[in-house]
Each structure stands twice: as structure tokens, then as C-alpha cells.
Specification:
Blueprint (H helix, E strand, L loop, with lengths): L1 H17 L17 H6 L4 E5 L23 H9 L1 H4 L3 H4 L3 H7 L1 E2 L6 E2 L1 E4 L15 H22 L3 E4 L3 H4 L5 E2 L4 E6 L5 E9 L7 E4 L12 H19 L1
Parallel strand pairs: 1-4, 1-5, 2-3, 5-9
Antiparallel strand pairs: 6-8, 7-8, 8-9
Helix pairs in contact: 1-7, 6-9
Length: about 240
């Protein structure tokens, strides 16, 4: 993991050289959000996926409120990541995942049977404007370094479930080999049905997590209710247990 941390800082340094006008500063790269040790002990390992950290992670009035000590690097940096959900998390955004995680028996927060981690596919670098407001060329410059880093992080994390709700153009940048073809794993019947797809990928020998994709809105899985999110999580928990038999 130490090597990945060093790469994350290198990715941010490159972004500061090439696209400094959009890089939030002061800040640090965020390799992952959450308690890594708790995640590794979890009966089901769940990783959620976004695009890049919000500018709100480093508010101008108090840039280090969410990551105290992270700027010092080393063990202080890792400790700040691990304690994120016990310090001052951006709860309104991460809360959109929580009902699904609850159905899976995990949480970003202390107190559940297992711990989930959040990661960002395109970049560990917080930007202003947020990702959707960036020029496409800038997005690609950041993604050129960020996406390979994310893939190597997932290889190390070896999750059971990779929970994704982003634009399909970025979903398609997940480049792990597929073990199976996408299929419907959950549906919310309504005038325009909400269909959740799942398929297995190989991230390392013997590690074949299920990628679970649902269409995004303003927030991940943003157009279905919390009740349906919990049902989705319970369905995924069964899928993981069945896959282990």
C-alpha cells in the first residue's frame, strides 16, 4: 500500500504541473476513504466507486478538517484516510450508498459487521470545478494517471463487490478481464425500470469480485428509494454468498 500512496502523491504533483488551475490546493490526494484494517477483516469486502474527490473534502475555511494531519504524509496520512468516517465525513454524498451497504451488512461507519471503502476511478485529486464541470481534455489528462492507479489499488484490496454508479463512458474504462457477461441482478419496476447489472471480473489470481452497476443521477443510485437500495444490498449479499459455495 505504501507504494500506492507514493504514486497518489506523484499523480497529484503531475496534476499541479499540468492542470494546476483546477486542482484544489491546499489538499492531498485521497487514495481511498475508510478504515482499511476494518475492511480487511470484513466478512464481505465492498468497495464503492466514484470519479474523483469532491472539492468539498478540503473546504476553504478549514482545509484539513476532514483529514487532520494528512499533509504530514507517512503514517499520519494513512491514519487520516482510515479515520475519515470517524472525523468529519462528507455525509450527504456518502449517505447515498449507505442503504445499499446496510443491505450487504457493511457500512462506511463504525458499528456494522463489516467496513466498506470508497475509491475514485478517474483520479485521487480533488478538483474545482467538480468532475462534470471539467473540460474533457482535462478529464483525460487526470484519468491517464488516475485510472491505472485505481486498477492497482483494486488488485491490492481484492474486494468481493465493486459498487459503481457513474456515467457509462467511465464505467467502460474498468479494464479488468471479465469472467462472465453482464446480467440483470436487480430491478425496480416502474414506468422506466431501473435495472442493476452485475458481472464478475478477475482482479488477481483467485480474486473475482462482482462489479455492480446502476445508473447514476446527481448522486450514486440516486433515482431509487432507500427501501429499494436495501433490497439491492440484500440481493448482492446473497449473490456473494452463493458465489463462495
Amino acid at each position: 500500500m505504501d507504494g500506492l500512496v507514493e504514486r497518489a502523491f506523484s499523480v497529484r504533483a503531475t496534476a499541479l504541473r499540468n492542470v494546476s488551475e483546477v486542482v484544489v490546493d491546499p489538499a492531498v490526494p485521497i487514495l481511498y476513504f475508510g478504515d482499511l484494517a476494518g475492511y480487511r477483516r470484513s466478512p464481505i469486502r465492498v468497495v464503492t466507486v466514484g470519479l474523483n474527490p469532491s472539492r468539498g473534502e478540503f473546504p476553504a475555511e478549514d482545509p484539513w478538517v476532514r483529514f487532520p494531519g494528512a499533509v504530514l504524509g507517512g503514517a499520519r496520512y494513512r491514519a487520516a484516510l482510515d479515520r475519515y468516517f470517524q472525523t468529519a465525513p462528507y455525509g450527504s454524498w456518502f449517505g447515498t450508498f449507505e442503504p445499499i451497504l446496510e443491505g450487504l451488512g457493511v457500512s462506511f461507519y463504525p458499528g456494522a459487521d463489516g467496513v466498506a471503502l470508497h475509491t475514485d476511478l478517474c483520479s485521487p485529486v480533488a478538483t474545482d470545478p467538480t468532475w462534470s464541470g471539467l473540460d474533457l481534455l482535462v478529464q483525460e489528462q487526470l484519468a491517464a494517471d488516475g485510472i491505472p492507479l485505481w486498477h492497482d489499488l483494486i488488485r491490492v484490496l481484492a474486494p468481493d463487490v465493486v459498487l459503481v454508479s457513474v456515467a457509462r463512458r467511465w464505467l467502460d474504462r474498468i479494464a479488468f478481464s471479465g469472467v462472465g457477461v453482464p446480467r440483470e441482478v436487480f430491478r425496480v419496476d416502474r414506468a422506466t425500470p431501473y435495472v442493476v447489472e452485475g458481472w464478475r471480473i478477475e482482479v488477481a489470481p483467485g480474486a473475482e469480485p462482482v462489479v455492480v452497476f446502476g445508473k447514476a443521477a446527481q448522486r450514486p443510485f440516486g433515482t431509487i428509494s432507500n427501501i429499494d437500495k436495501r433490497r439491492l444490498g440484500a440481493t448482492l449479499a446473497t449473490l456473494v454468498r452463493d458465489g463462495r459455495r
